[in-house]
Design a protein that fits this description.
- Keywords: Hydrolase.
- Residues 37-258 form the PPM-type phosphatase domain.
- The chain has one domain (3-258): 4-Layer Sandwich (Phosphatase 2c, domain 1), CATH 3.60.40.10.
- Helices cover 35% and strands 25% of the residues.
- The protein is built from 6 helices and 10 strands, in the order αβββααββββββαααβ.
Amino acid sequence: MDRSNNYEFLVALYDKQLEFAQNLQRKIIPAPGSFVSDYYHFFSYLKPFRKVGGDFYDFHFMDDDKICLLIADATGHGIDAAMITSMIKLSYSYTMKDRRINQSPSLILKQIESDISQQMDNTFFTAIALILDPRNQFLYFANAGHPNAILLKSNQQIELLKPNLPMLGLQQFMDSMHYFDMRIKFSKGDKLFLFTDGLIDAKNPDLEEFSIERVSAIIKQNANLPINSIGNNIVDACHNFKRNQPPSDDICILGIEVDE
């Protein structure tokens, strides 16, 4: 086989692997329409940097009308990162079947971290797991090195869901780790936005970052709009800010609004 034919063979092989990864990722990312709740409205946006990426989200409906939501960002891009998200999906699905674990966001993340670390060394990812509890009007969360989530209260005040755990994958380098959950009131009219760093790190031609401050300002300026409208306005504002700069990372945005 000459060099030209060998090159064409490798390109065709890569394209086939990429197509497989794309099909796999389409299947593990839930469709927005599959989130059906009497208590919450849901928004999602996912745009890989390449044809596949390392941003991931999933949700699981629980007893007592509770909902568990997970957003994660694997390091790297492309097929390798997409394979990690597939492993996160598998671990999350099995973890949510274990009632000893699935009531605690931090224990959910601990189990996923353990599962991934047993299969792949030096695999790192950030994540937020949260449990929505509409009957008691609370949400419980654990943030493992992920960008702050933004909570817009019904009085239009902003609260941040900051990290309370390190990035997942670092446990192997630590002697001990204390996993714990955070609790915050989440009631009628409140809106929550979660996103990966591809949103706030997006740059314009002047190398300015879109920033969490800009995202917070957009949310406050559009506070009276429904969650879908605010989410779409964030996407449009980021696109306009970049001024046709090519993407450099995956972007995932999730929004949850408590039904009034």
